[in-house]
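Now for my pick.
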Amino acid sequence: MIGELRVPVLVAPMAGGPSTPELIAAANRAGASGFLAAGYLTAEALAAQIDRTRELTDAPFGVNLFVPGERSGHDLASYQLRLLAEAQRYGVEPGIPDWNDDHYAAKLDLVVAQRIPLVSFTFGRPSAADVERLHAAGSRVVVTVTGPAEARLAAEVGADALCVQGFEAGAHRGLFTDEEADAAGGETYGLLAALRLVAAEVDLPLIATGGLVHGADVAAVLAAGAVAAQLGTAFLRADEAGTNETYRRALAEGGRRTAFTRAFSGRPARGLVNRFLLEHSDLAPAAYPQVNSLSKPIRAAAAKAGDPEALSLWAGQTYSLSRSAPAAEIIGTLHTELRAAVHRTQSWLFDRK
């Protein structure tokens, strides 16, 4: 699937609304492809999205699943009390901070039954048995990794390819383990460094992701050994994305720096700095998905009120360079920029004496 793309670009899975069947279908029509985001969906809701995507395109596409982690033993009472005041600000009640496995088993059964061509995993590696089931259904398995140690673990269970995530990426880091003492959850590698270190450890195709918004970025990761580039932030403002208007406006306005925070979800994620992030990051526990459930009604109310100060505004470091346009136009521009970057490189190599 990846090697057959006319444009070596994959639309990243963006859980919580931005990923839509319309976005993936538009990418396919433009010669690229992408992943539906299964995160936070029930199996029934995911099935509806798969069906809708297949109505819109007959080209292959992928689905991304969250690997459930261990239940956190944190006492969330103090953080729950802090967020009570936030909830009252927006006239809602905080969510119930229950642990759940994101319907993992049911969604895995679904992608096996649907014979999805490419199934990717975030927040850990699937079991070897799960990988075998997917292989038997004809699926290829991609595991998101943030460094060489995770790459080795993913290779051990039979991953067919790795999605290498640099620290520049927006939204959640794909860490297998969240080290609570570290604000970023663990060691951070820039994307090019991560690609080089991972390639030295495993002999698998690598998809590059993290801060990529320009065709020259795609050229750079291809030159570094990747087989494709996965872009998320670059498509948040696409016409077909499900990004809410408050979020879109904050991205378009620019001017905010980005930072890692656990304040919204309990896992380290890069987003635009706003009031909620500043006021709660220092005390947010490493307790995903409980914190995510706790803050969900607050985030929804803030979006409805048009207030970006309590939204999880996930974005990569280069978000200010993202474009508002139809997805096909974004991909076409990326392709043109990619070809120009390759031409410049060729000119430098072959036209100099």
The mean pLDDT is 97. The chain has twelve helices and eleven strands. The two ends are 40 Å apart (CA to CA). The CA atoms of residues 43 and 107 lie 5 Å apart.
